[in-house]
């Protein structure tokens, strides 16, 4: 395990490939950096330096209970990349990771060469959504991850995608409840990133699974319509994790984005 001490925590991360072209990928909830393994292998082999890290509260990074707002995650990413001596990079994220990416675009757009917004959405949390997220955080602290993981697996991964489903289930079952709950409470206070979308000037890929129930295609179209010059790709036959369910199609879309940066 490779670790870095930044912002008062330890972050577990992978740094694979070489060169000046850097791709940084941010995982979603309640996963860890291993969700990006097909992309790491493909793009590190294609000449990119690929960085994937466990967000605080997940995987091999420090678990910080309480509330972890999206700006804290974004600051951790910036600090890690500064620690690694990386100034400019292409940045991508899925689901919660995509919202963290939008926060990064708000905080430090000058460092970003390109963006990947996968299976995510920009709108603010609703009052009902805040209640649901806080209630779920309470449940995870009370019961652990297993019941929740079993319930939502086939919303994360389409039922016909059996092999990636096993990986996704393992990540969810292994996620630390305290870290996942803190992230949920932070996302309950999520701001509206719609205005940020209009400020993006770098090449941007908006990608979504055709069968995603959490962030439907309409959410992807909403972002695509507001990011000038962005590309929209709908991955057929995938749900919320197209990078694992349909890695070849996902990687092809990302490769086209990288060619523009």
Automatic annotation (TrEMBL):
Superkingdom assignment: Bacteria
Record GO terms (molecular function): hydrolase activity
AB hydrolase-1 domain span: 23-253
Classification via Pfam families: Abhydrolase_6
UniProt keyword terms in alphabetical order: Hydrolase
Protein's name in the database: Alpha/beta hydrolase
